[in-house]
Amino acid sequence: MAKRENRSVSNVVREAVAEYVTAQTQDSVRKRRLKALEKIREHRRSILRERGGKPTISPEQTGRTGRRDTVTICLTASSTS
User: Which value, to the nearest 10 degrees, does the dihedral of the CA atoms of residues 60, 65, 66, 70 take?
Assistant: First the structure.
């Protein structure tokens, strides 16, 4: 192969190793991502079981109004005479 492509054997081997490492890295990343997606699916199934199969909880069920309450603090400067 090296002779046919007019390249050194070491050059062909380096390229083959680099391609192999790249493929293994991509496969590893893909497997990690698939594992993470499965974990998310398991978590979602667990939440659905806790909620009785309902995907969301209404604000009434949580006791929240669905809005953020804000607090305004007024500071007054006291002058000393």
Answer: -160
